[in-house]
Amino acid sequence: MAKSRSQKKKTEINRIISDKKSISSIFENYISGKYTGLVIAALYFVVVGLISFIFHTVGDYGIETDFFWGYVPSAKKFLSGEIPMDAFRGPLYPMVLAIFGFIIGDFFHAGIFIAVLSASVLIYVTFELLKKIFSTVISFFVTILLFVNPVFIQYTYSAGTDMFFNALAALTLFFFFKQNELSYKNLILAAIFGGLSYLTRYNGIFLSSFVFVILFVNSWNTSWVQRIKASIMFAAIFLLTFSPWGFYCLSEKGSFFYNENYKNIAFEVYGKGKISWDDYWFKESSKITSLTEVIFKDTGLFFSTVVENITDHFVSDMEKLIGWQLGVFVILGLALLIISNPFKKWKTQETGFYLVNLFFFALLLVVFYSERFSLFLIPFYAVVAVQPFFNEKYKLRKFIPVKFSYLLMVGVIAFTFAKSYSFNSRNINSGPTELLTLRDWYEENIPVGKGGEIVAARKAHVAYYLNMDFKLLPMADSYEELISKLRESNVDYLYFGIAEAGLRREFQFLIDPKGNHPGLEVVVYFKDPPSVLYRVMNE
Question: Taking the model in full, what pTM does it have?
Fold first, then answer.
């Protein structure tokens, strides 16, 4: 009798498990703990942080060029009491870099730390945000896909504004969508983080699209009076957050929204494929004076370029940003989303999430493509790809076994991780490590100078590692003109390496220290890879 009752109990348990505890619900219960997002973020911070500090020993000649050329000098100026003004970026990142650089004692490692910390915040915010808008299962898989994404990891160990900006932008979304009802506290926090995003990168202006979301999506289901009040509050606080900088720009440059990013737009429309990067930026860009000029110089070409970029940027995102192993499911997800009539239920947080990301995608259409510009879109693309397999509103769920959906996601994650490991193993220390050798040699062999020495090069890295001031290798039509310009700029040293030889091919012969180079004296040279440090001689 007892055995019979025991068997009935086991049968009942099995029935409950099979009927009420599907694979999805079991998994969802397992990952729906209060600290799941925090654990994933902490794991990322520790693992990728250690990898970053151990293996990323020198800044690369790609995206970290801006770090050594612009952000470090600006951070140093902030520490000395100056307020530098960059024509293309806001002041917030150099200010934060100055603080962390002062604490850590090294700007490069401070930049890496800021990126790792920001990426970890972004991981946490992504999980919590998507759990709120979609589901825990969708949020988990999207967060893990972000975790292992090759480009996301690359810009975690790279010193620059990318992760810092994206963390601030994600925090804007996090507080805006945090509650189903209108919360002025969260609205204020969202607006503040939106303003801080703009102070980091001027394309943070896309977050002002929340005004549109408040007014016309109305996921809080409030009256028009409340919506107008909330939209005005968001816009006002968003503006107030960066208004001190705006007024400073107004006093110094005559424009509250001063920046010269229209030159990037001009290169995309009129320069790409027609003129070299150096020739454009150091010769032609000064001829362009406003966004209006860019648009109306050839309005047809401007708008046709933007339209063409819709396809070009999307395909590039699939190929370079997330990889086709996920991209095919993004395309499938978009098709199913359209078929399912996503605007049937307009007043949802899901609609607001999609629209803000689409505003960001649209903003990027006016500038040249770089996968780092699109980093913010990784969770959006992943949501579109993952949703059809785990959201009941999609008819696809009826034809695909639950186990297959999970196995598919595990397979995509594993493939993405393998690509990430391969890519970042090659990339993480691809920078000019010869500069570390030069730095060590210089410290051992050159007496400490009076300070303020100037080194000219094509990239600013060498100035950072030799603790010198940087001057851009001047454009010149002849060797004699080059030497003359170096002397006019009071340059003490000329560094010539791989970057200089590749970008200033008319002077490639300088990479050979045994040649006849009047006006230059060889200080030291290295064979592998070839690089030379010259002293510029006075007449």
Answer: 0.90
